[in-house]
Amino acid sequence: MKQLVVEKNNPDPILLDTPIPKPGPGEVLIKNHYSVVSSGTELAAIEFANTGVGEKLQNSSNIEKGLKLLKDDGIRAVWNAVFPKNILPLQLGYSSSGEVVQTGKGVSDFHTGDRVVSNGNHAEYVVVNQNLCTRIPNNTDIKEASFTVLGSIALHGLRLSETSLGSKVVVIGLGIIGQLVCRLAEAQGSEVIGIDPDTKRTDMNANFYTSVEEANMTNVDSVIITAATSSNEPIEVATKIARNKAKIVVVGDIPLNISRNDFYYKELELVVSKSYGPGRYDKQYEILGKDYPIEYVRWTENRNFEAFIKLLSQNQIHLLDLVTEEVSFENAPSIYKKFSGEDKPLSIVLRYDNKSEPKIDLQRTVELEPKTEKVNLGILGAGNFASTTILPILKELKKDCQVLGIASSTGLSSESLATNFKIKNKYPTEEEILNSEEIDAVLILTPHFNHSELVIKALNKGKAIYVEKPLALTEEALIEIEEAIYNSENPKLFVGFNRRFATATQFVKQKLNAKAANSITFRFSVPPLDKDHWTNMKEIGGGRIVGEAIHAIDLACYLFDSLPQSVASSAPINKDNSEANENQVFISVNFANGSHAAIQYFSETNQSLAKERIEIHGGGNSYIIEDFQLLRYLENNQDKSKVFSSGKGHKESLQIFFDYVKNTSENPFTWLELKSISRAGIYAQDFINSGQQHSV
């Protein structure tokens, strides 16, 4: 399929060929019929994409981050941060209409063939959460319906103005959003005046003027600013014409250099509108599909969609006269220059001309590769970890492997990585990779929630598997994996617990073979993440213990040569909301041979500390590792140190995996080991502050 994007350091949008995305749980796949160009937002995106590296390097905070990254992880990490391989093109557009062609798990309100509106991008196919689309009534024109998301921005701004029948409303800025606000305000029975210096826009309505003086309007109940400008004039004008205790609502992008006296003497109220309503930018709502109770939040973004499209269906507002031009999607890249010219269009609608029936099963274009001594790889997942860590290492290991294809749920990210890393085969879906006969092994690098599902599918297809931790997020998923292993003829399963393969770890392991350790303290000092970051979201990331701190459980298991027997975890309690701080966790693990691991996972430390510090003790000897680069070892009366430059074992881990696939070495993991480590991580995550040691 094609989608409209703007690439880094390229001022001209392009149509990019990408695989059709697939809907995940709670999502729907839509074949677009129309989408509306939002010139202000999209031109800003194009400008952002063309912000040079030099400008970013001049930012003092970025310089500080770069110096710290250089100190902690070396020049390669700095290079990957400044010139990342996965600079995804920015997708343009967010107001479209089309037809549902596939639904994901758990979707019951939408069915194949439904006509819907969504906040999908300019693309032939889009995937959106079911909270971000709504059905189009049968009597409503699908082209007119494509304005719904833009209309919801206008509707939310109007709601915030708290105006009603008979209110005096002034709208400053008569672009497409301003025009929609005016029509909605008129529909509710308000007296509406529009202000814009562009005479082409003011000529559209007898109540539109080029200036406040021309309009001669005072004692206004509410001023809604939809203009986008660097001038402070809109807010200054608004304070002059507003009555005492009036409300000023800012929908557009303007500076807010307000005069205290102007607001003080009139007791004016200023509100900045956030897009299309409650739920916007809330990952619980927009990604997990959790709705707000209607009795507490009447107008969410989805309910705003419904309200706006109902106005269209009842003919209370009409929009097609606002369309300056209708353009075939194939010609979409050329339209943006029109918005920077003198004769700016008010709005442009993109039309998708594919008249054939929508099909999900695409013809494969994969080139078969002859079998070689190399491992033929397929990669599932194309996120930041894949691009900055795994793929650069695979280039170094090209004598052992060749990447035949990559797939991701979004399509765009896999397309970008395939181009940047010269991966010639583009698989439309993860299933295509799992079904391909030419691929020997898969690397599962997707978000944590579907690791177990993909592992089971890969086992059923006879693929060798390298899966990033965690192996699973629930005990039930571990049982299902175990069943798939028993049913597989030759199961090959390897988990990315790379720390055990780091050079520093191997040095200490050799020492422990002579005199075993019985105690390990592992302290993580990690950057804080927002509460709604995907890692912290139970349904997607599983939490930071099972997703990250589990590395420490594996490392202890490896160094002790023993399995975890019981685990307990605790975290500080926030007294204001009685919630445990899961980014500040203490984990205690007892092992079968009597050894013990104390794991501290902290995100509220000073970030100049080493990210990972491990102390290993036993038999009078002690070993202290910092970031797997610096080792201090104290044996008898000797106090020595050693420096390592090979990192945290990612390369070594992949090398061992390839040797295992080629049958030149054994799997370093047993299933019992992987299951025990995974269960310990799951229990530590699920039973925080239970006050008990849970048997693994």
Gist?
Helix content is 31%, strand content 24%.
Kindly describe this structure.
By secondary structure, the chain is of the alpha/beta class. The chain has 4 domains: 2-147 and 319-351, Alpha-Beta Complex (Quinone Oxidoreductase, Chain A, domain 1); 150-283, Rossmann fold; 375-446, Rossmann fold; 499-695, Dihydrodipicolinate Reductase, domain 2. The chain contains 22 helices and 33 strands. The protein has a 9-stranded mixed beta sheet with strand order 32-31-30-29-23-28-27-24-33, with helices on one face. Strands 3, 5, 6, 7, 8, 15 and 16 form a 7-stranded mixed beta sheet that branches. A 6-stranded parallel beta sheet has the order 11-10-9-12-13-14, sandwiched between helices. A hairpin with a 3-residue loop joins strand 30 (621-626) and strand 31 (630-635). Helix 3 runs antiparallel to helix 4, helix 6 (148-161) packs across helix 13 and helix 17 runs parallel beside helix 18. It is elongated. It starts with a strand and ends with a strand. Residues 356-366 have low confidence and may be disordered.
